[in-house]
Amino acid sequence: MSAKDCGNHGYYWGERKFYRRLCGCIIFLLFIVGLAVLLVWLILRPTKPTFSLQSISVLNLTLSNSDQNYNFTVLFTTLQLSIFSRNPNSHIGIYYDRLHTVASYRNQQITSSTTLPAAYLTSGDSVIWAPYVSTPSGGAILAPSLGDALVQDQAAGVLLLHVEVMGRLRWKVGTWVSGGYHLHASCPAYLSADSNGGSFLFRQITGCTVDI
């Protein structure tokens, strides 16, 4: 082997050693950054956001039998909602992405999905959405048992609906932003008939169950 070959061989080994050290330094730095983020995450312990249903207005609520055999009932309704959310964390921000809301009656969805604007909440920040939700153009088809139950609730002057909020949530700690988590909030809406029995009114603000 010539002196030139030996020189080239030494150069390649030196270059290889340099890149190996560089990769080691990068991996070490990434490890330190990841460890720091993990420690901050464990120390701060993010708390789930709070949701509450501030109000619900029943703009219309009508039932009709769909055919002569009365095998099912069709519901038509439009609701205006006021949904409140707050970030209770001291040093953690919250991103809300791809949020939508629906209303349900006895575990059956009765309205189409309505999109809510995305939001970012800093520490202690809050947001209020005021969407409209309504049944599809052809109405919501209810099974006979649900139709009968809704007729009985109307006659009794009391009605329990649920407002559901679904979407994605991301945590923000400093400049670090987490991956997306599934968010689901379920808000009971207790309604009672007015003194004339003509419409249903929302009686009190209700807290929501939040799952992440």
UniProtKB/TrEMBL annotation:
Protein's UniProt keywords contain Transmembrane: yes
Pfam families the UniProt entry points to: LEA_2 (PF03168)
Keyword terms of this UniProt record: Membrane, Transmembrane, Transmembrane helix
Protein location: Membrane
GO cellular component, one term: plasmodesma
Membrane topology reported for the UniProt record: Single-pass membrane protein
Keyword Cell wall biogenesis/degradation: no
Segments traversing the membrane: 21-44
Domain Late embryogenesis abundant protein LEA-2 subgroup: 86-187
Primary localization class, coarse: membrane
A GO BP annotation: defense response to other organism
Protein name per Swiss-Prot or TrEMBL: Late embryogenesis abundant protein LEA-2 subgroup domain-containing protein
Species: Rhynchospora tenuis
